[in-house]
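All the exercises in this workshop are built on plain-text protein records. There is nothing in a record beyond a sequence line and a structure line. A learned vocabulary of local backbone shapes supplies the integers on the structure line. The question running through the whole workshop is how a given chain folds. Here is such a record, shown just as it appears in the course material:

***
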Amino acid sequence: MIRICIVEDEQDQAQILMDYINKYGNAANEQFSITYLTDGIDLVDDYNGQFDIILLDIQMKHLDGMVAAEKIRELDQDVTIIFITSTVRYAVQGYAVDALGYVLKPVPYTQFEKIFDKAIERVKARQKHVYIKVSVDDKQMKIDCDNIYYIESQRNNVIIHCADADYVTLGPLKRFDEMLETHGFSKCHNAYIVNLTFVEAVQKEEVILVNGLTLPISRARKKEFMAALTEDIL
């Protein structure tokens, strides 16, 4: 099931998009869950990465689509955004929020179908990834596990060390261990869970990551960690 959100303040335009999605789904034998919102502020409020594709009108009363997209990107780097607009002058701005593209109103089905094909391909490729949802600074964020180097426990907090940034959320570390142990992660120490993909080597009492960082490996964890690492390589 692919989850789609239409954010459009003109009800007739929203209905056209709904009809197009249903037409596309019938032709391609795809199932869609469609949510309809009338303003960007409705999208941003309580967003927690629940959509795969967002069809986003740019010009809206309370919060325009471009600003809404910027706020969404702070929380979700992977959702596919397609702008619906009446003018091409906003098109260049779309690159700043990694939009897939834009469709001009009135929306012809042929143009919609072309960009929607690309959106579905992107979603299906992304669905092969594993994501975790965490609360960071009172925001719900969706993090791609392929971008996580390791996860560290510090007192009551957990720090998720990613390729682009570090994210601090509440623990315990055990919760992340249970979520990720079947997805290529393993504990090398009571305070560290490591993405085995990024392990360069293990020597003596250290795990060396591909970025040069070293983490301690405890005696109690070493046998199990090495078994997980060998299985991951095979």
About this structure: The mean pLDDT is 90. The CA atoms of residues 202 and 226 lie 8 Å apart. The chain has two domains: 2-126, 133-233.
